[in-house]
């Protein structure tokens, strides 16, 4: 149909020229010697040139040599002749009339059925504004990360100072009960500092790998809360998974509270071979955190009644934020606390 309609060469040329002129992006048609056969209206407007100074001229001579770009020479002199086409070839260049521009070049060599000549279609997409916005976004992200890092550093230092002051007060008081409460407060401040420190080190664009995060956190808890004279170990298991930084922070605080609870109540000074296990498993959008110990639980395996202590209240509040359920089972072989977020939990 196309061949029948355009039997006259002039008609075909008129159509081709109209197509070139209609395209919104700058487009140049080059002959075999890289002289301009035609250019789109958008090319003239974008690069502030006119047709008389463009058509018939060698591409590299246009505008006093402003198109004599090394990467463009590579594209037209080597890549296109060898490959026949090239897409999204990025070039940056300073133009005298319009300033620095970032462009994506798309080039294709066209062979004709009659004759041995060929032409090259060179499409030009100006992505300068897009690259500027991307660079500005990257800079904002970099500044945000630096600010967050500075804030994390200051928060951690402040918490450590508070913990030191609390410990000094604990050593100074005469009341054993007051000292115990101050030591509990000290441990919680230290644990919050540990969560903040290790969470910040694990976060990548808002997500956290839970396996390494919990392993690092439990190592820190072990070093800060278990003395050399207490042979108690903390182990981490499970299939890990990825969590948001907000959820990871809450889960880290729950782990800390439950580990503190086990260290306080499950083991006495004579305990040997004490073990606390932290397991985190994921299945789709569901997850379960389990903290168990092999210390002294209730004599028979029963569901433990909720306690009213500070630690229990903290765990409940954090679990509620996570839309999770807390179940505690205590028996002669130890205590196990499960925090479960699952689709059935909401039904």
TrEMBL record:
SUPFAM superfamilies: ATPase domain of HSP90 chaperone/DNA topoisomerase II/histidine kinase, PYP-like sensor domain (PAS domain)
Catalytic activity: ATP + protein L-histidine = ADP + protein N-phospho-L-histidine
GO molecular function: ATP binding; protein histidine kinase activity
Enzyme Commission number(s) from the entry: 2.7.13.3
Any one biological process term the GO annotation gives: regulation of DNA-templated transcription
InterPro entries per record: HATPase_C_sf, HATPase_dom, PAS, PAS-like_dom_sf, PAS_fold, Sig_transdc_His_kin_sub2_dim/P
Enzyme class, UniProt record, top EC level: transferase
Residue span(s) of domain Histidine kinase/HSP90-like ATPase: 246-345
Pfam families for the chain: HATPase_c (PF02518), HisKA_2 (PF07568), PAS (PF00989)
Entry-linked CDD domains: PAS
SMART domains per UniProt: HATPase_c
Keywords (A to Z) from UniProt: ATP-binding, Kinase, Nucleotide-binding, Phosphoprotein, Transferase
Protein name per the record: histidine kinase
